[in-house]
Hints:
The chain is of the alpha/beta class. The protein folds into 3 domains: 42-138, PAS domain (Beta-Lactamase); 162-320, Reverse transcriptase/Diguanylate cyclase domain (Alpha-Beta Plaits); 337-576, TIM Barrel. Helix content is 43%, strand content 24%. The chain is built from 23 helices and 24 strands. The strands form 5 sheets. It has an 8-stranded mixed β-barrel, surrounded by 5 helices. Strands 4-3-7-6-5 form a 5-stranded antiparallel beta sheet. Strands 9-10-8-13-14 form a 5-stranded mixed beta sheet, sandwiched between helices. The protein is elongated.
Amino acid sequence: MQPVIGDDGKVLYVIPSAFDVTSHKQVARTLRVARFATDQVSEVVLQVAANGRIAYANDAACLHSGYTRDQLLGMPVSKLFPSLEGSAWSSLWHGLKQQGGVALEAGLCRANGNFDARRLRLSFFEYDGEACALILSGDGNISAPGADPAEQEFPYDALTSLPGRDLFVSRAGDAVARARARGHGVVVVMIAIDRLSLLKDILGCARCDRLVSIIAGRIADFISEGDTVARVSEDEFALAISCGADAQAEIARISRQLSALLSEQVVLDGQDLFITCSMGIAVSPQDSKDAQQLLLQASMALHKAAARGRGHQVRFKAAAGDTDAEEFLAEMELRSALRYEEFELHYQPRVSTCDGKISGVEALIRWRHPSGNLIMPDSFIPLAEQTDLIVGIGEWVVNEACRQFQVWQRQGLQLERVSVNISPRQFRESGLVGVIDSALRKYGMAPQQLEVELTESMLMEDMDQAIRTMQALKELGVYIALDDFGTGHSCLSHMRRFPFDILKIDKSFVREMVDDANNVAIVEAVIALSHRLCLRVVAEGVEDENQFAILQAGGCHEIQGYLFSRPLPADEIGRLLARGIRLPAAGATG
């Protein structure tokens, strides 16, 4: 009814009106049928509002995500697909409004924290006056999310939905060609998230993947139309950005703006995170006119930046020469070895001078090269020390030694502890204690079953910081050994400042003992003073029975050397532990 009001404000009459509710009922029925139908399909179906929150989820969405429908409704879609967080969703929404639909690949983060790759098909539509996005998701991976058939052969990154290395090189090559025709250039930037492996240990894989997705979104939001960005490895991104004639000014702008953008805090589950990124830069045509070569040059510059510490930027210098290129290729090979676990540990036993029992083993790294050769550490550790690689290698050694110790324990083999060598670079890392604690927890080891070996020289660089790190290790409960005593610049009086448990006499002293009475006197004095400082003494490099007899008589607790065993693979150490070691005849009765 529609009332008609007179001048005096009174109702003069009413106009009856009628509506055909049949159509409204039909629409409601159609919607119910549609909702029922979407609940029967195996594909995930989501309706997402402009603000990025889920307005509808079908049964498959609940099944595949692990969330209930009530939990999904109102949830940010980025919680399911972290690569759609923040600016990434804004950019995608804008693209949907312009194009109507898009296909891409993204990682689905389940309620239990696990990820799997999903193909997403997104469509833009309006319903009841509101703009929405419809997301359909199946199980399979896709080769490429773009509509360009020429790019279908190139894989995209499942986590970030960014192009991979091959597509980047293709697009960068096109950009270089276009720029050359206009007399312009292209800046290629390689970006690495500093200490990503440590962040993964601290945050966990799922949260770290979300962090990477956020960083990827920021980088993607930074570039302009016509530029390209890709995820080329687990912790590395590549950008190709067109620039004018003044490349130097453009490099300065890009470095400054990217550094500011990537150093902004990231809020993850209510926790404020501050990360740093290193950058390497190469420019066309000054450095090269080939996209693949530019990417290689930017990678070389990136690794020089990483060697300087966190958050540095380095411009490639074409005059660096062939030596740098050879070193870079060697470093790349070493990085590949770490990534594909080509390293292995051999273990050298330490034998008690009292009863001949194997009291411990020292873990020593070897590189099983794809050629089949077993490469000794002297050939690759110096290069690893010059880069950030030594940190990753050292972390692998700690974890592998703990894992193997757990295997021996489960086999019922008796062994007090395993020792690992800590490099100077690794010792300076603030996350060292966390890495060790994480490995102990992961493999169920008691802290006193692990021993870390430090050299004198690394302690002298910053004694106060060294003491703080060692105290943190002592609080954790691991044993600390002074390795190669006698080869550095310190002395036992300095050692009183450091919380050592074990002193290892260097093999250079042991080697000369039999023929040099002075060396015998020095070794005996070191052992005596170590006893007074309550340090356990281990002698390295023992190769004959005369050396053993002198050390045993002098009160040395443990012997390590070829007299008893060379470093052995883990399975051979297991057999050696099972059968035991026989002391030399004189030592057995001493």
